[in-house]
Automatic annotation (TrEMBL):
<dbReference type="InterPro" id="IPR009061">
    <property type="entry name" value="DNA-bd_dom_put_sf"/>
</dbReference>
<dbReference type="InterPro" id="IPR000551">
    <property type="entry name" value="MerR-type_HTH_dom"/>
</dbReference>
<protein>
    <submittedName>
        <fullName>MerR family transcriptional regulator</fullName>
    </submittedName>
</protein>
<dbReference type="InterPro" id="IPR047057">
    <property type="entry name" value="MerR_fam"/>
</dbReference>
<feature type="domain" description="HTH merR-type">
    <location>
        <begin position="1"/>
        <end position="69"/>
    </location>
</feature>
<keyword id="KW-0238">DNA-binding</keyword>
<dbReference type="Pfam" id="PF13411">
    <property type="entry name" value="MerR_1"/>
</dbReference>
């Protein structure tokens, strides 16, 4: 079990971020009797997934939608699958753009290197 500070440190985010995800109903940490948040390994695993979705440009609204579907149970599997497939397509599109940009940059870098020699 982890305090909010320990969880934030383990995930490389701020405690503010964890509170924000809680406010947005993306995560529901357990609570100690005194009200302090407590995170389990399962919470951290879920948050690692959430952070990857965010890192790959999934809007918070879509992450919230996915989290809500997950909470609703197995009958939402098709909707969750479709949401993740759409996001994967978005990532593939990003990779295509990045690859093309990388090629253009490599050509420009080679041009500068030739000019400097």
């Amino acid at each position: 079990m982890y305090t909010i500070s320990e969880a934030a440190r383990a995930l490389g985010v701020s405690t503010h971020t964890l509170r924000y995800y809680e406010k947005e109903a993306i995560i529901e940490p357990d609570r100690k009797s005194n009200g302090d948040r407590i995170y389990s390994d399962l919470h951290l695993k879920w948050l690692q997934f959430v952070l990857k979705l965010k890192e790959t440009k999934m809007p918070v609204a879509k992450i919230k939608e996915y989290a809500q579907l997950f909470k609703e149970g197995q009958h939402t599997n098709l909707a969750r699958l479709e949401l993740l497939e759409q996001h994967r397509k978005s990532i593939q599109d990003q990779l295509t753009v990045l690859s093309a940009t990388d090629i253009m940059l490599e050509e420009k870098i080679d041009s500068y290197r030739k000019n400097l020699n």
